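>> received
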Amino acid sequence: MRRITATIASIVSLIVAGVIVVAQPAGAEDYPPLATTSSSCMDVVVIGAQGSGQTYNENRGLGPEVWHGLNYYVGHMAGYDVGYFAIPYPSADVWVLATKSTRKVFWESIDSGVTETLKYLEARISRCPDEHYVLAGYSQGAMVMHRTIQLLATGKASKQLNAAVSRVDGVLAIADGDRAKNQGGISYDTAPLDGAGIWWVSGTGGKYKPGAIVPDVPAWPATRFHSVCHDDDVVCDPNLFRVDYGLAVHTEVYRADGESAAFVASAATAIAQQSKQLQPTITSLTLPAAIAGTSYSAQLVAAGGTEPYRWTQVSGLLPSGLSLAESGLISGVSSDPGSGTFDVELRDAQGVIDRATIQIVVSEAVVGEINISLSGAGCKLPGNSNGTYKGYAFAVSINNTSSIPVTIQSTSITLNGVSLGDTALVDLVPPVPEVDPNPFVLAPNGVAAGALLTGNASNSQNGTLTITYTINGGTPISVSTPVSSLPPIENASCTAFTAAGKEKLALLTGIPL
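>> returned
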């Protein structure tokens, strides 16, 4: 570590002469929304603090550096409600550090920022029990957020705030004057890990130093702290012999067009990933259909947050005969065709909540049989076929002997265990062949005979072909059959289809016979 013995006044005298004020970038998008203490609750609020001397007409009170990080964070949080709030604090100019008599103004400015951040958190947390937060600051603002998280994670704030520290997804500290030697957390940019910010250096910060380095406790691990510092930055990695250069670094490189912009973006992206991991999200928004009079079972699924999960139905109606267990299992027997739409709530072990609206359709019971027959005969489609299907064409027949339409959904098709991708049914009976969607509907007492197309091929030309499908969203059914050699479809030795059938398939593949 480079040892700096200069007084703070000698450094500030150089800084004051070269302070650069950065204007808001042209065309900055008007997002995310401002989240005041009375605004509606959100998934995440980014709480920002600008740097020394920056004003509230710069990037909505955040300054260009924090605003750059905010934009990257929001860009990786699609589907989440994200707001921001700029902490109203003096953000005192650095010139007050030049003399001993005015130095306390700077310390009081930081204290004010910490107090205002805690007040804002107190107001939001009491109203929004599921809301998460990101703390972000630049220069003096980074010190505000560094000290705020120290108070929260070490139990030195209010009881309510201390208990909510796990809801702080991350801290983005840009050019942090409180950066300490080997402080922990995750570091970005070129400053050495054994360097330190100006307020840790002997003779500069006096007694006004942070009470801890980077907190690391079970409720708030140090990996949530992200520090961005460029080598020789006059605030976070000062070098007495390069003060002019360090000033330029500090005031220029962290902006959206600066040399270290990519490091700020990387840190913000990492915090966004952390936010997603900490926010439980219901992923099973579509459930299989039930069949009247048949036993039904479907498990609700979520990702992120902290297990175990607890599920409850908060509104709406499940289909009659079905019920939701706290484990998320929906089960029972419904006797009445129709549908049920209901809202479920997921609460994780930390008390964080997600909600979703789900519908279950109950189909009429199938009276009769639905048979899918695969002969195992087929053709390898040409690699230059048009459209999605460039794998195989297998001869198939489907017979619906029931008195109701049935929806057949192919869930997978494999050859020797290797997936063949998407599937589609081609009915070769009509004069002009048509590719039916997957799932497809077969009329009562209907018969479909034609080709089952696959999106991909495998390295094997023979083996075991297995198709797995559902009827009216019921229990998956698998049918397997041996497959022999699969020559190209235009080859005369492909006998799986008649000449007329191959001609119709050629219309779809674009390969003339």
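>> The domain at 8-276 is CATH 3.40.50.1820 (Rossmann fold).
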